[in-house]
Structures are given as structure tokens and as C-alpha cells.
Design goal:
four-stranded antiparallel sheet; Multidrug efflux transporter AcrB transmembrane fold; 27 helices; Alpha-Beta Plaits; alpha+beta; Mycobact_MmpL
């Protein structure tokens, strides 16, 4: 249809009309702001410390920081090297020595420990000192005899990291200098370490490298990859879907430009308020693309619908903005409220995503209302042939087929919908939590493969730090160490415990070495003078002092025992912590027992994740309900509008329970966001239904007729926007982190069920339940409210 771009007829003025009348000034303002934000957008930084994953205000985190202050954190990079011959072969020990020496030459490394340079307190030729573990022979270095090696391993649990039980695998511990633990060039340093190990590795050898800094660096890499991959995939998919919907490349480009500007503004905002890029905020770029496209689609759809009622392009744009301005605003506010409720979480990275997305959807709405009308006024309208082709595509066929099913089988549709929802709700009791860092990685990732290699061939890398606290000097008393002896045996007997690194083993070795095995170790539990002497001997040199400080506080009021735990499917980390804490309390009472460490901190956050999920869900329901009541101008209608939005929330919790998807730092906000997104189509549909019923000139017009008319006018746009949301969330399946993949499937399922709730359940409930129909009649048709005409008398 040709469109007249000449003088438009006089029209009743609305605030939204100003967006068209002043579009040039508004577009110029957007351009100026966008240019100003470019430097900020380019300065967004990575969260290299992963501090945003910790609840720094929690008691568990404060206890952990106090533990690090007293005992240090012992953060090492672990390199595990496995060969066919093993450490019994002098050639392997020669390779190990060469690797160790070359690593020590790197300026970025503070300490390198391996069998080749490990020293041990022992007596040789009547002199007590720290001597090398390895023995020099004409053929090269060799291990001591099995009995000596067993005694050393018992005295120095650190040996578990340096030599496997079968002697086939040797380990190297690397401590970085403080400035390099979070250095931007840490990845390059780790690659250099791998090159050194690979260059000296025997032909039949293999190695893996893991550790906290290695995992942190991989998290950074995956964070950037997630942001880039998800953002690009969403852009491509949304652009393709919009091209199919409107059969116009120009309109698809308009949508992508508007969304692109919104993403750039969000990047600038993140930089301005110092929000880093982490495993949650990296999702924001793709999510903004996904959730902001619906407003643009509604504007364009109504614009082309109005071209059939007016020959003036500007009038068609103004009519479109007038019809969908308020519903789109309410949709934006419900989505913003849903994201805002996420900010009540105590986990910083979740709070940050909530803030970024709350601001992001508001920014996207403002830009859509400014830029979309300006672009529509600037380009030629889509040809009639393209509009007719769009009206006959499979999207139209889908909603027409659904229309026949719903209006002919509405009672069956309602029963099926309710049954499905109840089945999903039944899965809620099976939901579990997992906030551990390793949960970020997929089972096939290199990080998980390296961790498994080290754990299968050397020792489990996960540990819990047990701190026993009492009065000053309490750990110079023999009876206290007798209880620690019992505790060590109790913990070692637990099937979940791989090994126990206790200071008692160190004391027993020093006592046995000095007494030459002539005095029983039980004297440690009866002779306080002996304990004082041993502490003095250990502290003779700097190495001994550092070793002792790892286990005992300077005032001898606290002792540290490191408990290495196995990966097990039978017990959760919380259950293991509880078991260790209970066992320690039973043995050490009245001394205070604390279980800490990174594993314990994340485990403590799991309960906070559940609490924040419940609170955010309740707040989202309350906030969205209030906005629906405001939009529909009816308390009863506001409550009715929630009916089709219960199944999307139920399907998220049901999938998590039935499929074993854990509640974590990403999936925690899935349900609240589902509420905010799922009501969008409900708002557009009920707004149109209200309009149809209040405009009806026949006082006896059936509700079914009004429902059909509303359905026919909104279904295509609802399916189109849901399609973009569905595939947008589904693109998370191609990102590298497990929580993002889970979140994508949950979001896609919620969008699909929400669409069915609006197209099927809502109509079925209205048509099946007489009480709902009576409410509609009372709240809408009998009110004095009259909607303004869509086209003025001169149009």
C-alpha cells in the first residue's frame, strides 16, 4: 500500500506523539551519549580475583579470612607428571630435577617444591638437620628405601602431592609471587610453565596442571568467551528471526541497531559503576538482546497494522506508539522488577547482574521508543506483498491451529494445563544446591580433566581446613595433643576423607628422630617439657618456623588440620562438613571447632542462595501483581492475569528437581526472571481484551467473540516475541559454562510454557469458569471507562 508522507491530518496529541515530532533532536541526543560512552564501554574489566563470587559480609567468609591471616592460604599450582617407569627410575628423577630447576629460574615464581629439592629433618652421621630426601648414587638420584619413605610420608603429608602411592606419578608444587596470583599475564605464565614441563617430559610421560590460580584463569577465559559467544549468537538468531517475521532485511537491521546501542550503553554503565565482567554479568549482553527485542517487534507490528487505517506514515507510527506505549512500559517494568528482586541476593555477582539487567531493560525500552519510530519514519515501508507473505507464514498457521483447538476443547486444555503444572510442582522437593567454583565447568572441559587426572593419579585437590581453638598456650599441654591423636584417627577412618594433614605427625617425626626411636611417641601426651623442646627445635631455622606456623598459631591457642576429601556422589559437601565438625566436637570438647576453607565458604553460601531464591520469588510476584493491577485498572483482573504465569515458574522448579539441575549463582534468578518475562504477553493480550470489550457496541456481545478478536490481533506478535526469547535463551546451550547452559534450557522452557499459558490456559480458564467470565463482565464491560478511539475523526 502506498503511504502518503505529506502533511498529516490534525491529530489528538498524546505524549508518545512527541517521540515522533521531536525525533531528530532525540536521535541526536542518543548519538551524543553513545559516542561519550565508547571510552567507558572499552574499559570494562574482568573480575580476576573472583571476589564477586564470595559473600564477603558472611560469617563463613570472615572466619576464612581470619584463618588465612593466621595460617596462610597455601595456594599452589600442582603439576602432576605420570610415567611408565615412575619415580623409581633415576632418569625420571633427572627429568624432574631439570624441570624444577628451570621453573625456579622464572622471576614470577616464589617457590618450587618437588622430590628433587625437598628436604627433611633427619640425623646423618650424628648431625641433626634438614637433608635432601633423594639419595645420590653413581647412577643418579634415587628414592630412599620404602620404610624411610613411609616414615617421611607420614611426617610430611605434603608428600602426598609429590609422589603417588604406586610411585608412577610425581608432583611439583609451584607458589607464585603475590603480585602474580591475579596478574593479567597469568595465562601466559601458565602456558610458559606447561612449555617447560612438556620440553623435559619423557617420551612416554603425560602431565596435567591444576590449582586455584589455574581455575581462576580458566574462569576468566570462559567469562569472556561466554559474553562474546552468547552476544554474537543472540544477535545472529534474533536478526534472522526478525527478518523472517517481517520479511524485511531493513527492519531486521533496525532491530539490531537499536539493541546494539542498548548493549553499548550497558557496557558504559558497568564501567562507570565499577561492575566487573564475571560469570553472571557476562550473560547480560545476550540477555539484553533477548529481552529488549519484544518492544521493538510490537512497535513495528502495530505500525504496519495501522498503515491499513491511515495513509500517513507519521500518523501510523503515532497510533502504534499510542496503542502499545503503556503496555510496553508495563512489560518493561515487570521485567525490571523481576531483575531488581534478584539484587536481594547476598552474592555480589548475582546482585551485579540484577542491577545491570534492571538498568539494561529500562535503557532498551527508552532507546526502542526513541530510535524505532525515527527509523520507521526514515525508511520506506515494507511492500504489501511482503506483508501478505508474512500473514500467511507458519507463525500465522500455528496460532490459527491453536485457536481452533482452544476454542473447541477449552475444558480439556485447562485440565491438561493444570495436570502438567502439578507434575512440575511435584519435583520441587528434589532440588539441590551447588555453588562450588568447579560447577562452572562442563564435564568435558580441560579444567575438569586436569583435576580428575591429578586426583586419580596423585591425591584429591579439594580440602577442608579444620581449626581447633582454645585458651592461650593450650596446645603446649600434652592432654590436648592426645585428643588430637584420637581426632586424626577418627577423621582418617571416614570414607570421604582421603588424608589428614596434621601437626601431630610432624611432632612425632621430630621426636622419633631426636630420640632415635628409643622413646615412645606416647610421651607427647604426658610430657609438657618434651612438647616445648620440640617446638623450640622445629623453630631453629626459617624453614622450620614457616612449617610450624602453617599448623600452630603464635600464641599456641589454635591448631590447623587440613582434611583432604574425596569427590563422592553419596554425600554432599554440606554433609561432609557436618560430619567432620561433629566428629571434631565430640573429641575436642571443650575446645572450639571451626571448619573453614574455600569449600566451606561456598557450601555456607548454598543456604543463602535458597533463601534469596524464595525472597526474590515472593517479591517478584508482589511487584508484578501490583503493576498488572495498575495496567489493567482492576484488582481482580490483576490476580486473574497471574493464572497463565504460574506454569512457567512451576516448569523451572520442576525441571530443576526432576532433571537434577542444581540451584546455583546463575539458576538462582531463573524463576524470578521467568515471572517478569512471562507476564509480558499477558499484559498485551489482556490490554487488547479490555479494549475489545469496552469498545463493543453490542451490550449482549459474547465474551467468546471478544476473546477471539483479541486473540487474532495479538497472537502473532506474542508468538513472534516468544520465538525470539525462546531461541535467545536456547543459545546459552552453546556457551562453555554449565550454569549458563542450565539457565538457557530453563529460560527457554519457561518462555515456551508461558506462551502456551497465554494462548491456551488463559482462554481455557475464561471460557471454562463462569466466575471468571462474571468478573470480566463486572470489571470491564460494566465500568464507565471508555477507551479513546484508535483513529481520530479526521484520520
Amino acid at each position: 500500500m502506498p503511504v502518503n508522507t505529506g502533511d498529516e491530518p490534525p491529530a489528538r496529541k498524546y505524549h508518545t506523539a512527541k517521540l515522533v515530532d521531536h525525533r531528530r533532536v532525540l536521535v541526536l541526543a542518543v548519538a551524543v551519549i553513545s559516542v561519550a560512552l565508547i571510552p567507558l564501554a572499552l574499559r570494562v574489566e574482568l573480575d580476576r580475583t573472583l571476589k564477586s563470587a564470595y559473600v564477603t559480609s558472611s560469617d563463613a567468609y570472615k572466619v576464612y579470612r581470619d584463618f588465612v591471616r593466621v595460617f596462610g592460604d597455601d595456594e599452589f599450582i600442582i603439576v602432576a607428571i605420570k610415567t611408565r617407569e615412575g619415580a623409581s627410575d633415576p632418569a625420571v628423577l633427572k627429568y624432574l630435577s631439570a624441570i624444577t630447576d628451570e621453573l625456579k629460574e622464572l622471576d614470577e615464581i616464589a617457590t618450587v617444591i618437588s622430590l628433587s629439592n625437598l628436604k627433611f629433618f633427619q640425623e646423618r652421621k650424628g648431625i641433626f638437620s634438614n637433608y635432601p630426601l633423594l639419595l645420590k648414587t653413581p647412577d643418579g638420584w634415587q628414592l630412599p628405601d620404602d620404610a624411610t619413605l613411609a616414615r617421611i610420608t607420614k611426617a610430611l603429608p605434603l608428600m602426598d602431592y609429590l609422589l603417588s602411592r604406586d610411585k608412577k606419578t610425581v608432583g611439583i608444587l609451584i607458589r607464585l609471587k603475590p603480585g602474580w596470583r591475579f596478574h593479567p599475564a597469568l595465562g601466559a605464565l601458565q602456558n610458559r610453565i606447561k612449555e617447560i614441563v612438556a620440553s623435559q617430559l619423557p617420551a612416554n610421560g603425560q602431565f596435567s596442571m591444576t590449582g586455584a590460580s589455574v581455575i581462576r584463569e580458566e574462569v576468566q577465559r570462559l567469562t569472556v568467551r561466554t559474553a562474546v559467544v552468547y552476544g554474537i549468537l543472540c544477535t545472529i538468531v534474533i536478526g534472522g528471526i526478525c527478518w523472517y517475521i517481517f520479511k524485511s532485511l531493513r527492519l531486521a537491521l533496525i532491530i539490531l541497531i537499536v539493541i546494539g546501542v542498548a548493549v553499548e550503553w550497558v557496557l558504559g554503565l558497568m564501567s562507570a559503576v565499577n561492575i566487573p565482567l564475571n560469570s553472571t554479568t557476562s550473560l547480560s549482553f545476550g540477555l539484553i538482546v533477548v529481552v529488549s527485542v519484544s518492544n521493538i517487534i510490537h512497535i513495528i507490528t502495530h505500525y504496519y497494522q495501522n498503515l491499513g487505517t491511515t495513509t500517513h506514515k507519521s500518523e501510523a507510527v503515532k497510533l502504534a506508539l499510542r496503542m502499545i506505549g503503556r503496555p510496553c512500559l508495563m512489560c518493561t517494568l515487570t521485567t525490571a522488577v523481576a531483575f531488581a528482586t534478584v539484587m536481594i541476593s547476598s552474592i555480589p555477582m548475582v546482585q551485579q547482574l540484577g542491577f545491570v539487567m534492571t538498568c539494561g531493560v529500562l535503557i532498551a525500552y527508552i532507546l526502542a521508543m526513541i530510535l524505532t519510530p525515527a527509523f520507521l519514519m526514515a525508511i520506506k515501508s515494507v511492500r504489501v506483498e511482503a506483508q501478505e507473505k508474512a500473514a500467511a507464514d507458519w507463525i500465522t498457521k500455528i496460532f490459527r491451529s491453536l485457536e481452533n483447538v482452544v476454542f473447541n476443547r477449552y475444558k480439556l486444555c485447562m485440565v491438561v494445563s493444570i495436570t502438567f503444572t502439578l507434575c512440575m510442582i511435584a519435583g520441587i522437593p528434589f532440588i539441590h544446591t551447588d555453588t562450588q567454583i568447579l560447577h562452572l565447568f562442563t564435564d568435558s572441559s580441560a579444567v575438569i580433566s586436569d583435576v580428575r587426572f591429578v586426583e586419580n593419579n596423585l591425591i584429591p585437590v579439594r580440602s577442608l581446613e579444620l581449626v581447633i581453638e582454645g585458651p592461650d598456650q593450650v596446645f603446649k599441654k600434652p592432654e590436648t595433643w592426645k585428643k588430637i591423636s584420637v581426632l586424626d584417627k577418627t577423621l582418617s577412618a571416614s570414607p570421604e576423607v582421603a588424608s589428614v594433614d596434621s601437626p601431630l605427625s610432624l611432632l612425632e617425626n621430630f621426636h622419633e628422630t631426636i630420640s632415635k626411636g628409643q622413646k615412645p611417641s606416647e610421651m607427647l601426651f604426658t610430657d609438657s617439657r618434651l612438647l616445648s623442646q620440640l617446638f623450640t627445635v622445629i623453630s631453629f631455622n626459617a624453614e622450620g618456623k614457616d612449617l610450624l606456623r602453617r599448623y600452630v598459631s603464635p600464641d599456641y591457642s589454635r591448631v590447623h588440620i587440613s582434611v583432604r576429601i574425596r569427590n563422592t556422589a553419596t554425600k554432599s559437601i554440606n554433609e561432609i562438613i557436618q560430619a567432620i565438625e561433629t566428629a571434631a566436637n565430640n573429641v575436642m570438647r571443650p575446645e572450639k571447632v571451626i571448619v573453614t576453607g574455600e569449600q566451606a565458604v561456598f557450601a555456607a553460601q548454598a543456604s543463602q542462595v535458597v533463601d534469596s531464591q524464595v525472597i526474590s520469588l515472593v517479591l517478584a510476584f508482589i511487584g508484578v501483581t501490583i503493576l498488572l493491577i495498575i495496567q489493567l485498572r482492576s484488582f481482580s483482573l490483576g490476580l486473574i492475569s497471574l493464572i497463565p504465569n504460574i506454569p512457567p515458574v512451576a516448569v523451572i522448579f520442576g525441571m530443576m528437581g526432576w532433571l537434577g539441575i542444581p540451584l546455583d549463582n546463575v539458576t538462582v534468578f531463573a524463576a524470578a526472571i521467568a515471572i517478569g518475562l512471562s507476564v509480558d504477553d499477558t499484559i498485551h493480550y489482556l490490554t487488547q481484551l479490555r479494549r475489545e470489550m469496552t469498545r463493543s457496541t453490542d451490550p449482549h456481545a459474547s465474551i467468546e467473540t471478544c476473546i477471539r478478536q483479541s486473540y487474532q490481533k495479538t497472537a502473532r506478535a506474542m508468538i513472534s516475541t516468544s520465538l525470539t526469547l525462546f531461541f535467545g535463551f536456547l543459545m546459552l546451550a552453546f556457551t562453555p559454562t554449565k550454569p549458563a547452559i542450565y539457565f538457557g534450557f530453563l529460560g527457554a522452557a519457561a518462555v515456551f510454557v508461558a506462551l502456551l499459558g497465554d494462548l491456551v490456559l488463559m482462554q481455557s480458564v475464561i471460557l471454562s469458569l463462569g466466575s471468571v467470565r462474571r468478573i470480566l463482565n463486572r470489571e470491564i464491560k460494566t465500568k464507565s471507562y471508555q477507551a479513546p478511539p484508535l483513529v481520530n475523526s479526521n484520520g
